[in-house]
Amino acid sequence: MRIVIKIGTSTLTHKTGRINIRRVEELCKVISDMKNAGNEVILVSSGAIGMGVGKLNMHEKPQDIPTKQAAAAIGQCELMYLYDKQFMNYNHTIAQILLTGRDIDDPISNENFHNTMNRLLELDVMPIINENDTVATDEISVGDNDTLGAIVAKTAEADLLVLLSDIDGLYTADPRDNEDAQLLDLVFSITPEIEKLAGTKGSELATGGMVTKLNAAKIVMEAGIDMIITNGTKPSNLYHIMDGEKIGTRFIGRKNA
Hints:
Elements: E1 2-7, H1 9-12, H2 21-36, E2 40-45, H3 48-55, H4 65-88, E3 93-99, H5 101-105, H6 107-122, E4 125-131, H7 145-155, E5 160-165, E6 186-187, H8 192-196, H9 210-222, E7 226-231, H10 237-242, E8 249-251
Parallel strand pairs: 1-2, 1-5, 2-4, 3-4, 5-7, 6-8
Antiparallel strand pairs: 7-8
Helix pairs in contact: 3-4, 7-9
């Protein structure tokens, strides 16, 4: 299988913005095992700004664009160093790709991105993709990595997109506020009723939320690709997904006849 895994900031870091070392080690171990089993894996990783915030000892995410971009520049170095160190433990090579909305919208840049990504996979190298937050502005920004993950999955013609979040999946209500909330196992279409279930964004260091995840689902479902939202605090959930077990919420892509 060709699988795109989007890793959210809340999965990689503590609330302080510092790296959650134990979780990252376990996550890289599981992903390495997935590759060892013959799967092609592409990572779309958040966390650059969050890690930059932690390294700069800031108490909260900056609001002004120059400081955000500075934090991203610092954090991206640490993020890729972390991944390179962890995946080398299992003899897997990684490659960094940084994108903006302009790269995706421009046909020539998009084709180059597609060709580079496919060649990396042929070379058994795992692409790790993030938005280029150091130069992105509102006019050329993808905006969130849930959407970026969906675009990457569509471009790569992936079999599955997995969004690792700080929640188990899509619920009938916010489980943090409503103990009667029920997890939805399967979603076959993004109806107005489903859209109403989306709340606001999650952690303070994150940029996404259920709204962006449902937007990502629309993109990949239309392309015939399944998407799963599952809890990134439990990296072993990836094993359950590969074993075909019901984990999180699965959005069923529209398969062409």
